[in-house]
Amino acid sequence: MCSVHEGSAQKKTPRPQSRRQPLFLSVARNSRRPRSCWQIALPAIVAMGTSLSGYAVSAAGVEYAAPVSTRLNTTGRPIDMDVPIEDGGRELGDIPIRINADDSIMVSRTALIQTIATSLDAAARNRLAAIGGDAPFVPIAAFASAGFDIRFDRALQELTFTVTADQRASSDISLSGNHQSPASSVLAPPAKLSGYVNLFASIDHEWGMHASGEDFDSATSGRLEFDSAVRAGNFVFENAGVLAGDVDVNVCPTVALCAYTHSPGFKRQMSRMVYDMPEDRIRMEVGDVEPLGTSFQSTPDLLGVSIEKSSRKLSPGNTFAPTGGGSFVINRPSDVEIRINGIVQRRIQLQPGTYNVRDLPLVTGANDVDIVIIDDTGRQRHVSFKSFFDTNLLAAGKSEWGLTAGLPSYLRDEARDYLPDLYMASGFYRYGLQDNLVGELDLQADASVVMAGAGVLTDFASGLIGIRGAASTGDAGSGIAVGLDWSTTNFHGFMQGGGESIRLAAEYRSPDFHTAGNIDTALTGIIYPQWNYWLNLDAIYSAPIGYRTTASLSGRYQFVNDEEFGSTMFASGDRYGVDVTLSRPLTAALSGSLTLGVSNESYLSRLDPREPTGSEFRVGFRLFGNPDERTNISAGFDTLNEQSDVSAYRTSGNGIGRWDTSVNVQQNEFDDRASVNGMIGYYGNRAQVRLIHNSGFDGVSITDFHLQPGQQRTSLQIGTSIAFADGHVAIGAPITGDAFAIVYPHASIADKTVTVGGGDNVRAVADGWGPAVVTNLPAYAPSTIPVDADDLPTGYSLGAAAFDTFAPFKGGYALEVGSAYSVSAYGTLQFTDGEPVALLTGTAHPIDHPDKSVTIFTNAAGRFGAEGLAPGRWILEMATDGAPTRFALNIPSNAQGLFKAGTLHPVEAP
């Protein structure tokens, strides 16, 4: 509102004086909220007086009937008005001031304290509060006497507040951006009821042929996979399963024995209910749960109950590991540059004060932090320190824990199965005792064994040290296990350039030590060779050695536990190896590595491993290529397991309309076999299509090549999703994120195409086939969904061009683009006598919804423009002196886009 509050009683005038202000009086800055009439008029009067005074000097001999005044207040009465206050160029808000008849300035004591208190430390706040006693307005000079630099800029009509370093409260500078939900007024609310189902239908064909004495019959069948999630309030219900055909699409892994028999039919894979408390980072699950674990604990899937506190799942954008930091003081306005390991992370302009650097984006290991401060005189200084980081650490006072109980489960031939006689329970607790010290306790038990453990993880200047231990007792006896790890990265040791890393690990398990919840791998039908040890030693050191080359030296020795053997799938004998690996870029698009070593581990690559026969020299190489930013190629060979492989991947496009293709070739010299797998996929607005082929070959040997085809399988798969949110239903591509959104147009633009995303990265499109589905929103992390619409009516107000989200787990959104409030109106406002309503601000609101308003402005001719209006009768209230002047604007029901209102005159208050 444009108003004047005088120190004495005001006299209302029937016609506001401000309506005749010429155009040059509009000097208020557009970036700030509308100022009062005096704020607009006073600097203009000063400017006009100064200009005319100058002209009088240059035009000698010219006399005026009355001298031109340069005073702010020529009314003879005190004037109250609101002006902005700035701290080093940062606007803090508006506060009332009083301009006395003698032009002296007084400031509202209460408003000043409330506005600038957060910028001051406790001592300065107390000193400020003592100024002026209980007087509502205090002379500006009184603040200067108390040591506060507060000045009034007559030309700009604003207060400037300069805080010294010893007055300013210390401030935190966070570099990681790790924050919870943004307090945004435009944050879209998630739907109360939402859900989706992903469907993947395929036709699978197995080609009939004869090779190596094996017969493969031709077969064709269909297949339908699904996974779904429904969120009702704060509860999420998840399910997954498959309707399998006669063809088994799963390929038996290399160096594994697949002993199950495939059978067609419906197979349930997972069902559970999830309830999150994100503010406490706690998740509760009932059904097929996936528990967390620590130290020596096993973590099989369970049919039961799980409750866990996990920042990784419920606060993925936050770092609860200690991220280091430091403090620095600046005494003059300065440009500050924060560098970590030589890389600039942030440039910022700061006013005098004490600053704490927090949440540094550190890499694992030692980090060099350098803060460069350049003040306004050009003087430069550095504040430097080292900080260590590891994701396994927890900041002091932070914790994570998990409790689970139920029946262990596993998948056999894609169907979920359970062990009803092996009830088990598990729990652990990790706590940050200090920023560099974490303690943990754990307990786990089933019907046969009980295991308890403890451990500590600490950060010393020399690296990260972890010590853990556990003891078990049960039907198979009692035993203990102890582990010790030491690692440090990015340190300066033997090499002058730094960037070195080293890791040492040792683990001991007594013969009768056992963990709970162990599942016999024979039950799953996919059996890998097994090997048990009582002592495992491991070490690796790497460092840059010049010529863009990095060298690493690794060694390992594992002592076998022979008492655990009883199957041909178990390996026997100690195993060991020592390797040296050199890696470096070869060209701009190609890098490679070469490994030389001695090892006895090659026997582990066979399905019937036995005791190793002796050491052998090992040679391996690998090449990595990136011919362009969309293509990756890899190739390698290693004599350790007599295996070579080549793989390539390429993608074309972004968002919908994207293509990708991949090829993987693997050859095993020890059994003269090879496999070739290829895939090509297209990802569209409503579905994705993939063509997949798997081939097996026998007789593929470098020394004796006699190629014979083995199993050949081809699959054509189409994937889509059906999603709903608060009554809106849409079909889109499969939902891959932890949340989704349905985007649809308002009825006023129902025939228009709405695009989500832009440029060459269109994420979804709402068109004649229905709303768009945004498939990849993150959970518990901020995200923005940009939108646009084609061929809008001229003047149509689309509103916000993006939606901000902070989605809950598996949450859905129903987002409407456009609205009934999409009309843009323009016209002219005149007083009753025909004079323009010039250079004023005001509001417009529907006659029946005064709480929904938009801001309008007029120029010197009284012309106005307003966006975000809807058909109906609107009241325009212009901020004239005294009471506001009202106008009526009638927008017809068929109005779309731009509406010409013509000339409007004042009306009586409705």
From TrEMBL:
One of its GO terms (molecular function) is fimbrial usher porin activity. Residues 1-21 are annotated as: Disordered. It comes from the Bacteria. Gene3D superfamilies: 2.60.40.3110, Outer membrane usher protein FimD, plug domain (2.60.40.2610). GO terms for biological process: pilus assembly. GO terms for cellular component: cell outer membrane. InterPro entries: Fimb_usher, FimD_plug_dom. This is Fimbrial biogenesis outer membrane usher protein. It comes from Hyphomicrobium denitrificans 1NES1. The lineage of its organism: Bacteria, Pseudomonadati, Pseudomonadota, Alphaproteobacteria, Hyphomicrobiales.
